[in-house]
Amino acid sequence: MYATDHNIHKAVFDLTSENAKVLKDKVVWNIRMISDKMKDQNKTLKSIIVISGDAYKFFIKDLKNSPYNTIDVIAAQQKLEPILSDLQKNYDVQFHMCSAGMKKRNITPATLYTYIEHKKNKVHYLIEAQNNGFAYIPFH
């Protein structure tokens, strides 16, 4: 049997939704709520968000040089960027973007927020996370 640290809980969030409300009210809310509750119990939540599908647009800092240069995405970005930055800084959330989808959508690494990792494809990230004990949680 493997030794485990019962004070560390792990979750990988598979984010493909194009809906900003799903990101903010489901993914972000759950990470914050669960992390805060665990912290009160001297536990830690380690979270990874794997970005693919229609969710790319929420993680691009330079929308003018991306395929998502629209008024609605720009408005959503203004609300989401501080929230996503907070997750990365204060909740130690890792963000991994599917490199295959980036290539397909002509998204360059230079347009992304600096905290977005983008070296592997979605399936690779999900396999690694699950093999390292992360619970899989889809948000489609």
What's the shape?
Answer: globular
| Biggest β-sheet description | 5 strands, parallel
Average pLDDT score: 94
- Low-confidence segments, given as residue ranges, are none
Q: Quaternary state, please? A: single chain
What is the gyration radius calculated from CA atoms?
A: 15 Å
Strand order, sheet with most strands: 4-3-2-1-5
Number of helices: 4
Beta-strand percent range: 15-25%
- The run of helices and strands is EHEHEHEHE
Task: Indicate the structural class.
Answer: alpha/beta
Q: What is the total tally of β strands? A: 5
Q: Span between N and C termini?
A: 34 Å
Q: Helix fraction?
A: 40-55%
Task: Characterise this structure.
The protein has 140 residues and is an alpha/beta fold. The chain contains 4 helices and 5 strands. It has helices at residues 20-40, 71-90, 99-104, 122-131, and strands spanning 8-15, 44-51, 94-97, 116-117, 135-139. It has a 5-stranded parallel β-sheet with strand order 4-3-2-1-5, sandwiched between helices. α3 links the parallel β3 and β4. It starts with 7 loop residues before the first strand and ends with a strand.
Summarize the entry for a quick read.
The chain is α/β, with parallel strands linked by helices and about 140 residues long. It is built from four helices and five strands; from the N terminus they run βαβαβαβαβ.
Q: Secondary-structure map with pairings?
A:
Elements (H helix, E strand, L loop, with lengths): L7 E8 L4 H21 L3 E8 L19 H20 L3 E4 L1 H6 L11 E2 L4 H10 L3 E5 L1
Parallel strand pairs: 1-2, 1-5, 2-3, 3-4
